[in-house]
Structures are given as C-alpha cells and as structure tokens.
Automatic annotation (TrEMBL):
Residues 1-47 are annotated as: Disordered. This is Polyketide cyclase / dehydrase and lipid transport. SUPFAM superfamilies: Bet v1-like.
Length: 142
C-alpha cells in the first residue's frame, strides 16, 4: 500500500519505521556545515534567486523551482519537489547554530512509496548534494 500525503503538509521527523507522521519516507539525508549563521542560510533557502550575482539553485532540464511549503525562521525550511516526475517529494532543511559562527545544515529528501529505483534515487541524492553542499556552499566562499 502506498503512503501518500494528500494534504501536501510538510513532512514531520521520521518515526522508528522510517516513515514520517505524514507518511513520507526518508530517501536520503546529508549534514554539513555552512559558513554563515542560520539566518543567512535560511534566507538563501527561502529566496534562492535573491542575489543574481551569486546564483546557486541552477536547475537541470528535468527540474523545477521549489515552492516553500513551510518555513520557521531560522531553523526549518521545507521545499516542494524539484522533480516533476516525483511531485510527491519534499526536501526538509534543518538549520542549527554550530556554536561558533556557522550553521549545521541537514537536508532530507522525503518521498512517498514506492521509493524511486536505485538509479533515480542516486540521481536525486546527488543533485541535492550538488545544490546544497556544492553550489550553495560556494556562494559563501567555501
């Protein structure tokens, strides 16, 4: 049986069985430090096109700009899917102050069942990692 999120509410944290309270499954997650504080990273995630001199959300032909489904300044952002072929997907960003100046940023890819095949899943994870831990990080001078 497929677990759907008909209300399109943002995903909640995973339960012990891997599903979230809204029925979405964690399909990938990465955590990495970003140099600026959470408020700056939050702004970059909620307004990715705000600074045309520093573009980072460079989408491929099979991707679409995300919509903000949920935002709790400066700790949480949830995006709609970047991929029209997986409109059920969401990306959850958790931002924590790292104790010095920067941000511990975790992105989590959430999807409904069935999980994508391994090839597509690898592509989705790689793209999120490129966008967040590559492109976004470089805009902050790293």
């Amino acid at each position: 049986m497929s677990r759907r999120n008909p209300s399109r509410e943002p995903a909640a944290p995973p339960r012990a069985d891997g599903a979230t309270a809204t029925g979405l499954l964690e399909a990938g997650s990465r955590r990495r430090n970003q140099p600026p504080p959470p408020a700056v990273v939050f702004e970059a995630l909620t307004e990715p096109d705000r600074d045309p001199a520093r573009p980072w959300l460079r989408l491929l032909d099979d991707e679409q700009p995300p919509r903000i489904l949920r935002a709790e300044h400066p700790r949480l952002v949830v995006w709609s899917s970047l991929w029209p072929r997986r409109p059920d997907a969401q990306v959850r960003f958790e931002l924590e102050f790292d104790g010095t100046y920067g941000t511990e940023l975790r992105w989590t890819l959430l999807v409904s069942e069935p999980l994508p095949d391994q090839s597509l899943l690898g592509h989705l994870r790689k793209r999120m990692n490129q966008l967040v831990n590559g492109n976004l990080r470089r805009t902050f001078g790293q």
